TrEMBL record:
CDD domains noted in UniProt: SLC6sbd_Tyt1-Like (cd10336)
Name of this protein: Sodium-dependent transporter
Compartment(s) where it occurs, according to its Swiss-Prot or TrEMBL record: Membrane
Transmembrane residue ranges: 40-68, 89-120, 140-162, 174-195, 215-240, 261-285, 305-332, 353-374, 386-403, 423-445
Listed InterPro entries: Na/ntran_symport (IPR000175), SNS_sf (IPR037272), YocR/YhdH-like (IPR047218)
Length: 448
């Protein structure tokens, strides 16, 4: 591994960084939202199965591409290619993932800014600054612009410091904070009236619903989105892993942490909704379904917190700090995707590349802020419903159909000598070649 590129200094550093990338608003917000929209525990059950049976194999494909190439997403995929058309195709896929990551960060930064403003609001309320508190939780051009800028500055600050001193160091700080806050909030919600009904709705699956087409597609899409697949992020992170590490177990550990935190997030938010109902807050939409999406996070839960009196201010602060941390652990990985490309392909120093790209993405965020009524949803749908499934599918195609099987095995064996005789190697190549591309194509087709 080139010294100039840097790398993760420890196995735990990679696990926390990769889990941090995977654990973002897609888990803390997206997963409970999807659960609320798709029948509660039935969705949870299907999600857990698909995360390990389909998302994990695709996740492994991206990690392997990165560690084999020891470079940015484009260069890594081109090293796998042996013909001119394959190299051109590799550039298209690798660069497409980088663009996808940049687009996601452009709208992600805005939503993360909202989380930060909602986290500060309880502090203003405690200080008696009512006008400032109201401004923080009211949609306005000024608030959106200021907090998007603050969040992007935080992201740029971390990435400027590199892999070990930036991504790894801050992931080691932020991930334990995130998990600790999540568990404390779950324990507190469990003590409130109405929570037990919510736990029952979340944990008792209606088996008759698990084969519903819409539920299956939604669960598969959530599994791929929450693991940051299709954005070149895991290719980059894979390139920073030592050749001595066992990728099979590393990938499994990251997937386990990701789905565990998604599960815990649902264990917090779904019961919290029923607590809100016990306090008189409407949690069901007109069609009888649980309220989900932005209305859940920015309407139902704040109403719950406000009904708790003084304690609610501290709970609201903890919840939105949790959401902000989750957003930050993902945003640093998304910024790293384009930065690594510019640093390695154009020879620009990391500090300059990070600043220039960060400002460029912030300019796109500003454009969205000024046209938020239609651009926010447009960019989000373009990147997550179209970009991610296509790129993730093509990465699997690369590993399954273009990368020579003997080279794939040789790469995995560097950290796992006996992998050739394992259950993983007997199943994974065929999964990656046939099942994963087909399943992702199905998600994409459904999104159309």
């Amino acid at each position: 591994m080139s010294v100039s590129r840097g790398g993760f200094s420890s196995r735990m550093g990679f696990i926390l960084a990769a889990a941090g990338s995977a654990v973002g608003l897609g888990n803390i917000w997206g997963f409970p939202t999807q659960t609320a929209s798709n029948g509660g525990a039935a969705f949870v059950l299907v999600y857990l199965v698909l995360a390990f049976c389909l998302a994990y194999p695709a996740f492994m494909a991206e990690l392997l591409i990165g560690r084999y190439g020891q470079a940015n997403a484009v260069t890594s995929m081109q090293k796998m290619s042996h013909k001119l058309w394959q190299k051109r195709f590799a550039f298209l896929v690798g660069f497409g993932g980088i663009i996808c990551a940049a687009l996601i960060l452009s709208f992600y930064g805005i939503i993360a800014g909202w989380m930060m403003s909602y986290a500060i609001e309880p502090i203003m309320s405690l200080m008696g600054m009512t006008d400032a508190a109201n401004w923080l939780v009211t949609q306005s051009l000024a608030r959106n612009f200021i907090f998007t800028a603050l969040f992007m500055l935080l992201t740029i600050f971390i990435i400027r410091r590199g892999v070990e001193q930036g991504i790894e160091k801050w992931s080691k700080r932020l991930m334990p904070m995130l998990i600790g806050l999540l568990i404390l909030l779950i324990i507190y919600v469990f003590t409130l009236d109405g929570s037990r009904e919510g736990f029952a709705a979340y944990l008792n699956p209606d088996i008759s619903r698990v084969f519903e087409p819409d539920l299956l597609i939604s669960a598969l899409g959530q599994a791929f989105f929450s693991l940051s697949l299709g954005t070149s992020v895991m290719v980059i992170y894979g390139s920073y892993i030592s050749k001595k590490e066992n990728l099979v177990s590393l990938g499994a550990q990251v997937t386990l942490i990701d789905v565990s935190i998604a599960f815990l997030a649902g264990l917090l938010i779904i019961p919290a909704m029923y607590v809100a109902q016990a306090q008189g807050v409407a949690i069901f939409a007109e069609d009888g379904s649980l309220i989900s999406g932005s209305n859940l996070v920015f309407t139902v839960l704040p109403s719950l917190f406000s009904g708790m009196g003084m304690v609610g201010l501290f709970v609201a602060f903890g919840f939105f700090v949790l959401m902000s941390i989750a957003a930050l652990t993902s945003s640093i990985s998304m910024l790293e995707a384009p930065v690594s490309f510019i640093v390695e392909r154009k020879g620009l120093p990391r500090e300059k590349a990070t600043t220039y790209i960060g400002i460029g993405i912030f300019c796109l965020s500003t454009l969205i802020v000024f046209n938020i009524s239609f651009m926010l949803d447009f960019i989000a749908i373009l990147a997550t419903q179209y970009g991610q499934p296509i790129i993730a599918m093509l990465c699997c195609v690369f590993v399954g159909w273009i990368w020579q099987r003997s080279e794939v095995l040789a790469e995995i064996k560097q950290g796992h000598d006996t992998v050739e005789h394992s259950f993983f190697w007997k199943v994974w190549p065929w999964y990656t070649k046939f099942i994963c591309p087909s399943a992702i194509a199905l998600v994409f087709w459904h999104s159309l």
